[in-house]
Amino acid sequence: MKTACKGKPYDFLSFIVLSMIPLALLPAAGIRIDGDFQDWKDVKVLARDPKGDAKGAFDVTQVFAVSQGSTLYLRFDVGTVLNLQNGPKAEGTLFILIGLPNGQQLRLDTRRRLAYLNDNSEERIPWPHLKYVVGPTYAQDEFEVQIDLSGFAVGLGDSVSIQFDGSDRLDAPVVHTFSQSSPKPKHRSSDRLPGTDVRIVSFNTYVEGLCDPNRATTIGRLLNAVDGDIYCFQEEWESSDIDKIMNRLTLLDSLGQRYIHKVRGNVITSKHPLKVLPSGNSHYAAALLNYAGKSMVVMSVHLSAMGYIGSREDLWRIEQTRVILDAIEEINKGTYHGPDGPSTKPSIVMIGDFNLVGSRTPVDLLINQKSSGLNDWLLPNLVGESIITWRGGPRSSFSPGKLDYCLYTSETLTRKNGFMLNSELLDQTELKQLELRSTDSRVSDHLIMVVDFQFSS
Question: What is the pTM of this model?
């Protein structure tokens, strides 16, 4: 997903150079911006508002707030299933208004996707300054938001007021006091766990990164660091560049990739032979492989971007998913069976950029269809609890969010290690071990995803 926002960047804390601000998104321990609200179960309601009093589509009735360090976490309902960051103009917008200790007001316009102080909407504050995250990216009737207020000198003991405006407004602002310090983020290992049979890596390379000589060295470091058996890439659009991609991969130190399958922007590469499977549309590539004597189908997926629930882009994603479901049905019928014989269903791993910025229907269709046998694996980062896979950039209109997914057949595959890699969050010891530089992950707007599986006996 690629967007841009017009207008001047907001110049606050001028001693910070924007290009040096890491897109590090570290939710508090216990609160993770993922659209699942189980981690809020012990948080009391901060404010209630009457139902049915909204002027637009957003009808806020409950608000929750917690904080750690200088980061504020908000949870609120909106009355109906819709997208927080995009939708028809007739639905209106919802403002989140944060009254700061210095007397200024931070205004977050959710539908125009703008942050600014007071009434100065021309001086936009870029999302990285606020480490602003919204979950989920897809349509829902409840959302959670992360806002880092350290740029306004907010710290322990300070209080802020919280109000909404636009489509709905609380009867009166509510106050939250920052009283908890930030915990140290958890650091995980990238090593393969005992019993791992196969490691699959997915990476949206951002507009043909594998074919870009200016990014070759950086992408090479990232791919070598995770040392996959199978790689799935997205956004490698140029259909004539299979040889170029192959040459780039075989030059990398540890990959030794020799087999490749490409459908439009979707690429699958493997150290071992793969059997190309037909694709019903250009939004996925599928291949059958044999690992540890077991058959496995790998799909590299890139659904259409943009839109909102009910939009044409959302309907395209749903239709693209139905075609993938048809392919899974053929796979499970044994149409493309591997060496285990026609009566054995191969394992399936579907991974890539699902672009769920409209409805959640595409993923729900895949994991709720009994015949598919697919489950969703929510991957943490190597450092901290962030599940964000797409960061955009300093001038991005949409806030960072989770756009990449991994679906797999839990009946035949056991999850081992799994993580996302953001080099900007690694300490010096970790960077040295993985032979990475801190800025390497900026080579794309997506993060690398790594999943390890063991085949069930």
Answer: 0.90
